[in-house]
Design a protein that fits this description.
This protein folds into three domains: 84 residues, no CATH class; 62 residues, no CATH class; 36 residues, no CATH class. The protein has six helices and seven strands; from the N terminus they run H-E-H-E-E-E-E-E-H-H-E-H-H. The protein starts with a helix and ends with a helix. With 202 residues, the protein is α+β, with helices and mostly antiparallel strands. The protein has a three-stranded antiparallel β-sheet, with no helix packed on it. Strands 4-5 form a two-stranded antiparallel ribbon. A two-stranded antiparallel sheet has the order 6-7.
Length: 202
């Protein structure tokens, strides 16, 4: 997991107790950990009562190094408290622009009626036309009829994060459905138990 996370373009901060002796450069576990994640460890000094640097705050070299303070909180834990401040810039959202037709408003009967009255269905308009001209007439007629009934619309949407998979999408749709039912219901008791649980956990 850490090997994969280290390749992401998003800002990455790894913090916590990893039970690896970073104050011992020759320790094989510390060497393996550093080679695996490819991140820079910013904690300096002892972080455990019995000695050793077991807690980390790691970032990539392309990020501004965070300032890390090691605070001794007596009686709370055998580990020191790490207080770090980082400046992370949220990357701008990436939008994808597409064009599409709203096929929900498409009326097949109206389209067929307009098609029958068009030049495409009038044999007199075919006289003297070769194959290429007939194909052009077909394309132009169909596009014109669709443009009048279901014109092209430009849509801009933001791409989902890599972790937002099909399961997340289905859960989001279910939650929206349950919320609409909850808003239309006089009482949450009218809803099924799974719906109430999902509605409350948003």
């Amino acid at each position: 997991m850490l090997d994969r996370l280290s390749t992401f373009a998003d800002p990455l901060v790894l913090a916590g107790d990893v039970n690896t002796w970073f104050d011992r450069p020759s320790d094989p576990h510390a060497v393996q950990f550093r080679d695996l994640i490819g991140l820079t460890q910013h904690v300096r000094g002892v972080t455990q009562d019995r000695g050793g640097t077991l807690d980390v705050v790691c970032t990539r070299d392309d990020l501004q190094p965070p300032s890390v303070d090691v605070i001794d909180v007596v009686g709370l834990s055998d580990h020191q408290l790490l207080s770090s401040t980082s400046r992370l810039l949220k990357p701008p959202p990436v939008y994808v622009t597409t064009t599409r037709r709203s096929w929900r408003t498409f009326d097949l009967d109206a389209f067929q009626a307009n098609l029958l009255s068009s030049a495409l269905c009038d044999a007199r308009c075919w006289e003297g036309l070769d194959g290429d001209s007939l194909c052009k007439l077909y394309d132009e007629t169909i596009v014109a009829l669709l443009a009048s009934q279901v014109p092209l619309q430009t849509c801009r949407r933001r791409q989902s994060n890599a972790w937002f998979d099909d399961d997340c999408q289905r859960a989001k749709r279910s939650l929206r459905s349950f919320k609409r039912a909850a808003h239309c219901s006089a009482s949450l008791s009218d809803l099924s138990l799974p719906a109430v649980q999902l509605w409350r956990t948003e």
